[in-house]
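Hey, sorry to bother you again with one of my protein questions. A protein chain has come my way and I'm curious about its shape. It would help a lot if you went through both lines with me. I owe you a coffee for this, so here goes:
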Amino acid sequence: MPEKASEKREMSVAAFCQEALQKEIAPRSLGKVNYRIIVAARELRWSYTRTKDVWYAGPKISIRGHELRRVEDVSGLVYEARQEVQKNDDAIDKATALLGGQDAHLVRSIVAAVRSVLGLRHSA
């Protein structure tokens, strides 16, 4: 089962990259498909063959992380999963900022609790 989930995830990345290539990086207004693939390959600095594979997004295609980042950079689009991660990172940053004033007190409390459990006394 995990292999199937992985394949679906890869296809969604492949579909994102395919759409970015066809609609943003090399849109229909450029002309024929072959020329659009050439333009996309130049923009992405990929080989023609690799660009063609992503363009048609076959079932066996796998998009590497650096390729996804390159597609995002060139197209100006952001992959949905990356947006979700960014939202989570932002929420963590906000929570950290809210707790920022309490961190020193929290650490002191934890240290004091550990000392009391171990039977150590503060000798300052």
In short: Helices lie at 2-25, 33-44, 48-56, 65-75, 80-99, 103-118. The chain is about 75% helix and 0% strand. Confidence is low (pLDDT under 50) at residues 6-11.
